[in-house]
Design goal:
about 260 residues; about 20% strand; 10 strands; Transferase(Phosphotransferase), domain 1; 8 helices; Phosphorylase Kinase, domain 1; alpha+beta; globular; three-stranded antiparallel β-sheet
Length: about 260
């Protein structure tokens, strides 16, 4: 598919996946740079195209929120799908890695926006199912955008599929159980906040059986940076082994930690 004919001046590759590449481009029509996700459908199974890819497009075109990546246009041919979206400077993982960890003050500002975007999705009956720092793009350093809805599902879908990255996945997913995808999103959200404020993962092992055992243990925080008790409490409420005990998305946003900005934590 010729992007020039479609009105885009193609730039360099800024990201790569198994079945896609993301290229920078300039849109004279929009008057700014954009990111174009180029998906090679010839490498995908019919099941993936009809289930996950169709679901991603449906979700992206349905969601309009300041903290969800904006899609400008979608073009499709027999072998290629192009998703034109707003350009990001970096992802959340890259930001954390560059600073080793984020202060609670900075993390609070970013995390609240992430949580509000997830609440918007959940209110629409959409679970993300692949929440991780790499799937949170930053248009500016303090403006996060949820992206990559390839594993998203609606509230009427079966949730027994293993989705997401193991280090962010809830115990019920790793154990192969039928799970509530909205509660699984809350666990992943807790892992994201933990990584933001500590610079490390709460549970991390390449061996899935060891990872499951780590998740069964009491959550521990590193000695440095020294987190406030309020921040630790919020993380603990999200990272509960029993899904029924995890905080709801509304209770997360109502947590006292979000009212601590004046304390400079």
């Amino acid at each position: 598919m010729d992007l020039t004919i479609l009105g885009y001046q193609l730039g360099e590759v800024i990201g790569e996946g198994t079945y896609s590449v993301v290229k920078k481009a300039f849109s004279p029509k929009l008057g700014k740079s954009v990111a174009i996700k180029v998906i090679d459908k010839s490498k995908l199974s019919k099941t993936y195209i009809n289930k996950f890819l169709k679901r991603e497009i449906k979700t992206l075109t349905r969601c309009y929120h300041p903290n969800i990546v904006k899609v400008h246009e979608i073009f499709a041919s027999q072998d290629t799908l192009l998703i034109v979206m707003e350009e990001a400077k970096l992802d959340l993982y890259e930001l954390i890695n560059s600073k080793h960890h984020l202060s609670e003050r900075v993390a609070r500002q970013i995390f609240k926006q992430i949580t509000e975007a997830l609440k918007y999705c959940h209110d629409l009956g959409i679970a993300h199912r692949d929440l991780k720092c790499e799937n949170i793009l930053l248009i500016t350093e303090n403006c996060p955008k949820l992206s990559d809805f390839g594993f998203a599902c609606s509230d009427d879908c079966s949730s027994s599929t293993f989705c997401g990255s193991p280090a962010y996945a809830a115990p019920e997913i790793l154990n192969g159980e039928v799970y509530n995808p909205f509660k699984a999103d809350i666990w992943s959200l807790g892992v994201i906040l933990y990584l933001m404020v500590t610079g490390c993962m709460p549970f991390n092992d390449n061996d899935l059986s060891k990872l499951v055992k780590l998740q069964a243990q009491a959550l521990k925080f590193p000695p440095t940076p020294c987190l406030t008790a309020c921040c630790q409490n919020l993380i603990i409420k999200m990272i509960k082994k029993d899904p029924a005990e995890r905080s709801s998305i509304n209770n997360i946003l109502a947590h006292p930690w979000f009212q601590c900005a004046e304390q400079g934590a």
